[in-house]
Amino acid sequence: MQMDAQDAAAVAQVLAGDRDAFRLLVERHTRAVFRLAYRLTGNQTEADDVVQETFLRAYAKLATYQHQASFKTWLCRIAVNYSMDMMAKRKHETAMPTMPGGEGEPDREIEVQSGRPGPERMVLSVEMQGAMQRGINSMTDVERTAFVMRHFEGCSIEEISAVTHQSITSAKNTVFRAVQKMRRSLSPFVTENAG
Predict the structure, then answer these.
(1) Which of 24, 38, 53, 107 gives 100 a disulfide partner, CB atoms 3.0 to 4.6 angstroms apart?
(2) What is the tens place of the pLDDT at every residue in 67-100?
(3) Is the pTM of this model over 0.70?
(4) Could you tell me the fold of the domain covering 1-90?
(5) What CATH number is given for 116-190 in this structure?
(6) Residue 133 burial by Cβ neighbours in a 10 Å radius (0-12, 13-18, 19+)
(7) Which tens digits make up the pLDDT trace of 150-176?
């Protein structure tokens, strides 16, 4: 995977001693890292912590960055590792809250065709959000990471493979298992077409 030219130029400037060039990298990737962290942790404060720690770690380890993966993929790997550490520390706490969209984005919900939802649809929406959350909670940390990267962030299997330290085949299988868990969780809301 080729590194973006702007990222490559900024990394080279930082490594040459221009600390201000790192600001460009932060500005370019903060939203993506925050969205990923928020969807993994389900908590805005923790996601903010992940973003800050990700860029601190990236700056400290920039000299060790190998250009085999894109800079964004490398940042995502750092964010996922820190998020997993954070989630492991809070395993004993209650389930993650519902995950709204990222900053300035609408919540990720199934769209209904009517303009105004009636009480039944509002109840269904709440129940469906609960089912989605149960599906996400049933996933392992690696499955959750792969699912979020693939279905919320639109990442390729190759990017997921790089971030989760899996082979491409294993990454595909991880995404498949995560989707199966989500499907099982959402099965009460899916109706079979008769005929």
Answers:
(1) 107
(2) 777 898 899 999 998 988 887 777 645 444 444 4
(3) no
(4) Rna Polymerase Sigma Factor; Chain: A (1.10.1740)
(5) 1.10.10.10
(6) middle
(7) 988 888 999 999 999 999 999 999 999
